[in-house]
UniProtKB/TrEMBL annotation:
Gene Ontology MF terms: glyoxylate reductase (NADPH) activity; hydroxypyruvate reductase [NAD(P)H] activity; NAD binding
InterPro entries recorded: D-isomer_2-hydroxyacid_DH, D-isomer_2_OHA_DH_cat_dom, D-isomer_DH_CS, D-isomer_DH_NAD-bd, NAD(P)-bd_dom_sf
Residue ranges annotated for the D-isomer specific 2-hydroxyacid dehydrogenase catalytic domain, each copy included: 6-312
Protein name as annotated: D-3-phosphoglycerate dehydrogenase
Domain D-isomer specific 2-hydroxyacid dehydrogenase NAD-binding: 112-290
Signal peptide location: none
Domain of life per record: Bacteria
Family indicated by similarity: Belongs to the D-isomer specific 2-hydroxyacid dehydrogenase family.
Keywords: NAD, Oxidoreductase
Any one GO cellular component localisation term in the record: cytosol
SUPFAM superfamilies: Formate/glycerate dehydrogenase catalytic domain-like (SSF52283), NAD(P)-binding Rossmann-fold domains (SSF51735)
Length: 332
């Protein structure tokens, strides 16, 4: 039997690696990088023909080093690929894939949960009780409803549409913006209305980000955009940290212009201790867990393995998951 090996570029605890290995079919083995240091990443990507990355960047230098050692494919565990150098992958003849739509429901649930946590001051109340403080007099006047709010979604793919679907029960007015409006029947089913970005920013009670990080969207929510948001509005980011000027958000919340903000993603991960988002009142932060769920874990792993097995067998993987496909696979 032919054996295939996978390396996970994100360092994992042994228990997490064992959980991953339990999903592998016969003939497949897996290891994980020792750390995120440049040397350990170079060693890892050169150790197997197939690599998986969750958050670990895959740079041009890593593609070149891996390709020289026989790297055939890199699979993104998730959707966003801004940390993967696709041009370098093409130059090096390395396939790149992702699990399109696999995390839509977990991210959408996280998004709605963060909206509720912000509006109802759940985290502040919980932390107060842990520290021995009964903060009802301070927090009650600041508690608001999600029901009936105007929610603006920047990006309206699988995740944005899942958020809209979940918010239908709250009676929210849903605005969205994206490069191309979705078909009218989709808008009708989700009770969503297309507007330009400036209108969305100026009229939404809650703005939630669900777009890719590209040169055009980098720091799209900067100080000027924050100033155009409604006083007391909330900002939620479960997409990519680089979409937002984090220091400007912390200042906008501190000044009282924004009612609060919630972040599951950050420009630098793991988050440095001095990140202002992690030390501000009325800002809720979570460690990029929005796309994970026990119920979707096995399905996602098996989907990645199926794509990599297709590459190993000289077959085309799922077309919807392809970012870069090199050589004969384009024709099969």
């Amino acid at each position: 039997m032919t054996e295939y090996s996978i390396v996970i570029l994100d360092p994992l605890p042994e228990a997490s690696l064992a959980r991953f290995r339990a999903q592998l079919p016969d003939g497949w083995t897996a290891s994980a990088a020792k750390s995120r240091s440049p040397d350990d990443q170079r060693d890892a990507i050169a150790s197997a023909p197939f690599a998986i990355t969750g958050d670990a960047p895959v740079t041009a230098a890593l593609f070149e080093h891996g390709a020289q050692a026989g790297l055939r494919a890199v699979h993104k565990w998730g959707v966003g690929y801004d940390a993967i150098d696709l041009e370098a992958a093409r130059r090096c003849g390395v396939h790149v894939l992702r699990t399109t739509g696999s995390n839509a429901v977990p991210v959408a649930e996280t998004t709605v949960g963060l909206m509720l946590a912000l509006g109802r001051n759940l985290v502040a109340g919980h932390m107060g009780l842990q520290e021995g403080h009964w903060l009802k007099p301070q927090l009650a006047p600041r508690c608001g409803l999600l029901s009936g709010k105007t929610v603006g979604l920047i990006g309206f793919g699988a995740i944005g549409q899942s958020v809209a679907r979940m918010l239908s029960g709250f009676g929210c007015t849903i605005l969205y913006t994206k490069r191309t409006p979705v078909p009218s029947d989709v808008e009708t089913a989700l009770n969503a209305r297309f507007v330009d970005r400036e209108t969305l920013i100026a009229t939404s009670d809650i703005i939630s980000l669900h777009c890719a990080l590209t040169p055009d969207t980098s720091w799209m929510i900067d100080g000027a955009a924050l100033a155009r948001m409604k006083p007391g509005a909330l900002l939620v980011n479960t997409a990519r940290g680089g979409l937002v000027d984090e220091a400007a958000v912390a200042e906008a919340v501190s000044s009282g212009h924004l009612g609060g903000a919630a972040f599951d993603v950050f420009a630098e991960e793991p988050v440095p201790q001095d990140n202002p988002l992690c030390h501000a009142d009325r800002i809720v932060t979570t460690p990029h867990i929005g796309g994970t769920a026990a119920e979707t874990y096995a399905v996602t792993v098996r989907r990645m393995i199926a794509n990599l097995a297709a590459i190993a067998d000289e077959r085309a993987p799922d077309a919807g998951d392809v970012l870069v496909l090199c050589g004969a696979h384009r024709l099969r």
